[in-house]
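Record type: ASSEMBLY
Status: queued
Input:
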Amino acid sequence: MKVPVLDLKAEYAELRGEILPALERVCQNSSFVLGEEVEAFEREFADYCETRHCVAVSSGTAALHLGLLALGVQADHEVITSPNTFLATAEAITYCGAVPVFVDIDPATGNLDPKLIERAITPRTRAILPIHLYGRPADMDPIREIAARHNLRVLEDAAQAHGARYRGRRVGGIGHAGAFSFYPTKNLGAYGEGGALTTDDDQIAKFVRAARSHGQTARYEHEFVGYCYRMQGFQAAVLRIKLRHLYAWTARRQEIARVYRRLLANARIEMPIDDPHDECVYHQFIIYAHNRNAVPAQLAAREIETVVHYPKPVHLQPAYSSLGYPPGTFPRVERACETVLSLPGHPGLTAEQIDYVANSVREVVGEK
Ligand SMILES: *Cc1c(COP(=O)(O)O)cnc(C)c1O
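Status: finished
Output:
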């Protein structure tokens, strides 16, 4: 039985009747960059995130970059984050001329361990950048408390966590701002690149609105040197349609995770904890397998596709070798990268496929 990690073709086949007229509308109005679709999406996504503002931009990376600038991150500042993430989290810090300072993860969640933050703070620290990895909220209460005590700003990397809740609150509105990605593979994916910055802070929203479009506060009125980080009309049109389906898709991802947890309870793997106070949106359903390197090929032989998110932590990437973190600096994240595996978890999976994946994983890794 073929089980892909993602099936965007099948999703399009289902949505075609909604998508094509929406794209036609963008063409008819020629609102190709920003414009009415983008404005409508911003209102709808702000409602969804329960924030006062949403500013749509051209990618999640752009949202992180402008978010950090809006929080005052500048050259020679330090920003504390986790190396258990996609490179873009750290890149956005580098774009500001600032330095990423990594701390290890809590192995139970895969997210930044708040207990390790304070010893990483220096006089140059300006912000903390927690990631809600795989759709699981980072532990925001202690992070916010530490930030308040040291007068630091908090930007959430919510690129994988559309709609996740921490202690009842939607991510993206818990720190000073949140950055979302609408890359096609994300839980809410555009048909191209896209991103958004969410915040309750009027000043942050105002800055990002100008910064995404060459620093303009009015047409041809450039307050400062900004960027070309605007969202396209086509992407907003697609995102508005998909946002209406996101509630059902997220519920389905959560249901799939419950089934996997039950079926894999006795398998020789570990799974991240599921905090009952929070709501994980399962961008990825991950397991930790001790013999991980042997597992993907054995599952592929059964036509089950898997992906490793991520095989190498950011501090060991050649791109960041200049930071000088040798292997062994962050043992928990390094261990996670050696054992982690993402199983197919997208909302289009059938009950038979989920059963088949779980049974195959049990066969391959053995029982406890
Ligand atoms: C996808 C992703 C990004 C970058 O988003 P883009 O839209 O691809 O620029 C940043 N951080 C994390 C954790 C991501 O998963």
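Annotation: The radius of gyration is 20 Å.
Annotation: The first helix runs from residue 8 to 29.
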